[in-house]
Amino acid sequence: HISTSAGLEQLCQQRGWWDGEGPFDWKRALSSGGGHASLGVCGREKAGQQHLATMAAAAAAGELGAGDARGWLERMAAVLRDETSGICFRDLHGFTSTGSQLSWIPPPGEQASHLFTCASDPVETSYKRFAFPTAAA
Length: 137
Prior knowledge:
Blueprint: H1 8-14, H2 26-32, H3 43-60, H4 69-80, E1 101-104, E2 113-117, E3 127-130
Antiparallel strand pairs: 1-2, 2-3
């Protein structure tokens, strides 16, 4: 038996996200139920895969360059704000996504950028850049 928050398994059964058979699987419970169930099993992952394929096609067509940090970050922000697929939840299943993070990891020698939403609704808030100190030698 795995450790879960008190009442989580019962809540998932009550809401029809888990049938109570077999080991409890949080990922499967969220992926199979709710508003994004029409996308099929693992609907959020499938939608994410489609978003990434679209970005890869744009890169292959020369519409999105490998070093275009702004272009990649804007497209990833749109993915993370996708409510239709269930990637971003706004009161889906009784709770809301509480934040979102984007990171641009460039080649060695260039500075990485990390951006976070700093509010409880990633759809409505902007991303803010955070700088992390480099390790002292």
